[in-house]
Structures are given as structure tokens and as C-alpha cells.
# Entry
Amino acid sequence: MTLTRYRYTGPQSCASLRVGESRELLDVQLLPGQPVELPADHEYTKVLLELKHLVLLPTTEKKGVKANAS
# Structure
């Protein structure tokens, strides 16, 4: 399951989403002004985007730390 980072701008809420082929449960808290990770292709995410409750956040690449071989 791939999640996309957004900033949530709607009213405080929470949701339980069935995601992936295994239909596992993803619980998310939606707090105004806070980042949230949601599956971009999920119907609930699409509704929040239409309501303008989500703002896409820029992706940040995490650089791995190289271990020193001794």
C-alpha cells in the first residue's frame, strides 16, 4: 500500500479505511492543519480532495545513512 502525504484542512475527524488487496484496516486521525498519509487512489481521499480538505505536501526523499565498514 502506497500512502501520499497531505495537509488536512477540514474539521477534526477520524476515519477507518479498507485498503489494499488484503483489505486491511487503516485508521487515520484528521486534525486541521496537520499532515496525514492517505492512499491517493482511495475513494475517501478523492472525496476529501474534491471538498478541498486536503493539500498535497511535497515529497521528501529520506537519505540513508552509510555505515562505516571496519
Notes: The CA atoms of residues 9 and 33 lie 5 Å apart. The mean pLDDT is 89.
